[in-house]
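Example record used in the benchmark description.
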Amino acid sequence: MAINDQDANRWLQALDLYDKEITEHTLRVTSLSLKIAHSLGLPKRGLMNIQLGTLLHDIGKLGIPESIMQKPGRLTPYEFQVVQEHPLFAMEWLTKYPQYKPAMVIPLYHHEWWDGTGYPFGLAGDEIPRLARIVAVADVWDALTSDRPYRKAMAESQALYIITSESGTHFDPEVVDVFLDYGIFETNYFPAYATIFA
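Model output (structure tokens):
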């Protein structure tokens, strides 16, 4: 099972040494993504891939200089371009683990937007794997509602407005609808390592 994967645990430990806040973000996004995926009716295998892929979704940031990741102000265009490389770092590292192939779509594609304006490949709509479309919503929600080096957390009402207004542009409308209809954002996160596959 993904929760017992020693290689994944080693990656998470390395990420935790690099930046504990990224690790905490990762665990929150994993929990939220699992809840969305469960509400969408994904089968057991899909939930396992969501769990593993989301736990690893930001490991590519290990390849980004700390001076950029911890910068207290807004990034320059060049610095943002450097950050946009992190999905490619993840792909390069994770291809060494064939067992990760079904889950690897999440680290690689979770910054692709529904309208094709995301990165690193500019995929659009159903070209983006469904698992990555789920994580995209959870990832942005947590980023908006958490403190960042350059700003304080937004109020949930403001974050909800952004998520809703970007349905059909940045986000898969089906995923946003489930996120809103089930009130997922109002529920407590459940542990990312919870055994939900019994």
